[in-house]
Amino acid sequence: MPNMLGDDIEESTNTTSRLLIRHVLLPGGSERDERTFYDVLCLDGKVQSIRPTEGNQYVDEAEFSQSGGTLLQTDGLLLPGLCHAHIHLDKCFLLREYPDLQISTGDFKEALSVTDIAKSRFSQDELTVLRRGHELIRRSVECGVTSMRAHVEVDKTVNNTCVDVGLRLREQFKDQCDVQIAVFAQDPLFQPGSDQAGENYRLLAQAATLQGVQAIGSAPYVEPDIACAKRNINLVLDLASKYHLFADFHLDYNFDPSLEPLIWYLLEELTTRINNGSWSSKSRVCVGHATRLALFTPNDWNRYKRTVEEASLPITLVGLPQSDLYMMGRGTNPAPRTTLNVTRLTKEHNIQIAMSVNNVQNAFTPQGSVDPLSLCPLGAAVFQSATRTDCDILLKSVTTTARQAIGIISASETADLIPRVGDPADFVLLHDNTSTHLAALNPSYDRTTIKDGRIVSIRKTEYLDEDMYRNTQSR
Ligand SMILES: [Zn+2]
């Protein structure tokens, strides 16, 4: 038996990090059988080799560990690290932080107003913003998140408080998670009756130049009218291109057939800018929510697909189901429960959609956890999609498609769930799942997170008998 794995290790004795994940299941598909166990060797943050586990005879585990390597023995399923394509770092856990600011009507207007009151306290209490953001990232890493786009608001109410906190947390967690900071205008850039962008725009434009900021976003639907909403889009695209940032819009967040879908305007603007050379080739665009598009006919979707493909538009739609389902369709009977149908759009139109958590414990999204994998069983129910194919699509929407959406990997790179030699060694290991199908339907609680070939978090259920429990209490 040749010492194949040993040779892989031998070739790289000068490496700084070495992790051998032993006896692990990989996603199935045409190339691999999910019932076969594999050994995945990671060197210097990259996948060095993937080989079927063939017993212990061809690697000396003691020697590997003694020479500084980390050995992870498991029976679980290895998936690409999870990715928050869209999460708000500064307004998480507000329902817990401010008990006086609770939900009464539950509608969007109320969510905006109570969040505004909370935001008015941020500048005086920067430490709580930091503590909440820290908890969001730490809990995300425990779930298996290795990359995220974190929105932080910039406006007259909070000034630079949130972006400053975001940049500090980005640095603090740099070994555990790629935290991409997106400066975000939740508030209008224009005042009613004025055609000049105001103070909120000036602050946003200034924040876009800060070292470490990688994306810029806005919510054009808060503008006083549709003309201002379109100008909001133009201003954000201008800044994104000027400073080589990713652009990220909260767009078409309604379920009203009488409202013009602004996605067409955005596609038109993007096409024009690409054609006349006024768009940075590094800038991708994300569109979050887009619930209005759930009213699209097959012809509308064909038009969308054709427009994006003909001009090679760097754009991805990001469904935010926990928020969309909670907020959309209020006051109608029967109430539609609406969010982008990830599985149907992939299968019928070959349009890849990411899904993301958006908010945790605030008036926009009071329910749900920080775990991106929790969106998969939700999607299986809402889209009535639980086949093996559907489940792979759902898993991609919170891993590889999400990474492509925020530019962590390029759109031309493989979006496969199966790791390949040379890939970044960013994984989540699901200890209690034996297939991608089951991982999407009922994700394992016990998880190990691997970032750049290093174990950065282990989340495990502890089983205690009565004596052990007493001992833990008396410590
Ligand atoms: Zn959002």
TrEMBL record:
<dbReference type="InterPro" id="IPR032466">
    <property type="entry name" value="Metal_Hydrolase"/>
</dbReference>
<protein>
    <recommendedName>
        <fullName>Metallo-dependent hydrolase</fullName>
    </recommendedName>
</protein>
<dbReference type="GO" id="GO:0016814">
    <property type="term" value="F:hydrolase activity, acting on carbon-nitrogen (but not peptide) bonds, in cyclic amidines"/>
</dbReference>
<dbReference type="InterPro" id="IPR052349">
    <property type="entry name" value="Metallo-hydrolase_Enzymes"/>
</dbReference>
